[in-house]
Design brief:
alpha+beta; 40% strand; 4 helices; 8 strands; Thiol Ester Dehydrase, Chain A; homotetramer; 25% helix
Chain lengths: 154, 154, 154, 154
């Protein structure tokens, strides 16, 4: 796969987790569930520690829990690579569910496909289980709001 | 838009709500939030009563809350039109977020594009606010498990 | 479905067809195949006159012919509603194929879900046959390049 | 990324090209343009030799040419891994266009995310240029028709 070797993260996983906890209070009570575990040039790894509350009929992790993991993967990419502007928003997300996932750690390997001035496109491989099978795959787009220049705030 | 006038629901909105409450306990504690408000031939209307817990940074309803509404719209369609088999699963969902939505009632107008033996394809217009603007639009696919034949249960 | 009643087209179907023929020479030799047949506030109707060349194994219209119709539907919407700037480009397109379509006229009913300054989101119902069944449904996004102001060109 | 190391192709790239040429006559006159260049366990590489006819306004390769490459990537995967049943059809394809591509060879690196009995899900990285940048990325689903048993044909 093509690499985006020119990209450089500005924040670590720990810094992104602290930032999300601060700007996103509604995520707080779920915060031991969703977290960034790595940030690297051109991507990140995020984790859902899936428990009972994330299950749906059939005993598998719900689509909306996996959607949230995919969305957080993109959010961590945009926060870490485009700067900590919490107001970036998802404009599109497409997700395919390919296998059932049971409760336990579920990892999202997220890759930036394009980082432009106003849009970031990413994909994410969501894997689970002892064999690391893909359980879902998503692609999405974040809209990046124009940055307020420091001068203009002076 | 083309109509699927040959489709006929087998369950009412109240029956679907009761069924979801029974088979989907994890949704129970959110149950005053997501509900079916209408089921009609070829589609349904679902509602999210969005409160503080559904908001994200910027004070708007989170993508994952709207994803869940879209997914539930498809689930209500498949339960009501293909029969109350709770094990149907989403295989694909694509969602576009086009406007910010504030807390309050958010309605999803859901339409079956195809109901086959093993797949159901739907789309959903998610509207909010006094002017009923589209805030998101999604299309998705549910996989319908093979029905157990009556003989084999004898 | 929610209407975008505030939108007003700037070009007619005939004007859009003439514009596409002029800026898009590669489409020329296919031009009796793809055409705009109506432009109205918030949307348009486009048509593919599908012949032998548009078929795939099984004798049905190929996915790429229907993709092209969906893409042209969005293009006609952006040209007619955002202005005749031929350099708008598709950034995302998601298409579901739900029924086989045979050779003959295939109509795409296209609706603008959002017209912003830099993005237009649309969906399109593609219908065919004597009963007007949906054969495919797509949603997509066009990126609209910043308009050059008239002053800056003086 | 997770590997599907248990998958094993039944056909080589040359065999798939010969098969496509035979079952898909409409592709024939474009056949030096689209071709399989490799088939390996769990995926394939396909190439578009993009020329003048594949360009759109702005001098870049058209979205529909890239869509066709993505679709052929999935088709080669399904033909080579699920067996040479030409009647498999695309049910969903989602494509993001992230950079302009100029005329020249454009490669699609295609990976099977899931190969089930009735569905195959794949993604494809489409790269071009001397630096091998991603120009588009797609995910899609092929429906695999039930195989006719040999007995029933006797």
């Amino acid at each position: 796969m093509a690499e985006q070797s020119n990209l450089k993260p500005m924040l670590t996983a720990a810094e992104v987790n602290a930032l999300m906890e601060s700007v996103y209070p509604q995520l707080n009570n779920q915060f031991t569930f969703y977290e960034a575990i790595d940030v690297f040039p051109g991507g990140c790894t995020v984790r859902l520690n899936a428990g009972e509350r994330h299950l749906r009929p059939g005993g598998t992790v719900s689509g909306s829990s996996l959607f949230t993991l995919a969305d957080i993967g993109g959010y961590v990419c945009v926060l870490s690579h485009a700067g900590p502007d919490a107001l970036s928003v998802t404009t599109n997300l497409n997700i395919n569910f390919v296998r059932k996932a049971e409760a336990g750690p579920i990892d999202g390997h997220c890759r930036i496909l394009k980082l432009g001035k106003s849009l970031m496109v990413f994909d994410i491989d969501i894997v689970a289980g002892p064999d690391g099978h893909t359980v879902a795959h998503a692609t999405g787009t974040y809209s990046i709001p124009p940055r307020k220049s420091f001068q203009s705030q002076a």
